[in-house]
Amino acid sequence: KNEQGKTQVVKLGLKPDQKDSLEYEFAIALRIDQDHIAEATKDNSNMFNMPFKITKEVGEKIYEWSSEGIDLEKLKDELISSITELATQSENHENMFKELHSKINNVPLKNVKTKVLERMKEMLEKIEVPTVEQQSENELDEEQTELFDEANPPIANDFEKK
Questions:
Q1: Rounded Cα–Cα distance for residues 118 and 18 (Å)
Q2: pTM here?
Q3: Phi and psi dihedrals of 90, rounded to 5?
Q4: Predicted confidence (pLDDT) per residue in 12-47, tens digit
Q5: Where does the record place Acidic residues bias (predicted)?
Q6: Residues 28, 38: contact at Cβ < 8 Å?
């Protein structure tokens, strides 16, 4: 039903019509309805996350994007090196990297999709690197914890009953 409450025909289940001799891999594929509302069925540009009304400006935006000529392999290599560098910044970073990498079945990073790599990098960047003061406080706390014997606390020795 439309805004006036009347029943309206909506087309569903349209499949792309592609000839057998077409040998191209599409970077962007849009499904457009009769109201000129487009929905991305494939989008390597990451420009179209939601359905939108297709206009001349959208076409210009696609043209500009396709003219940029971004080297995707170089971008992926840069992401991998950033992730690798971030993973060595602290123990927390290393643990987070191991956890994230295990969630993708420890697939080599070279074989992981760029969007997943970007998300991994974002998550690693959110982890704060402890300052020198925080590290020394943490080390002191750990040393004190190691010295403490739960079975025989130091205060108990001072107040033994005779």
A1: 32
A2: 0.46
A3: -160, 170
A4: 665 656 666 666 677 888 888 888 899 988 888 878
A5: 136-149
A6: no
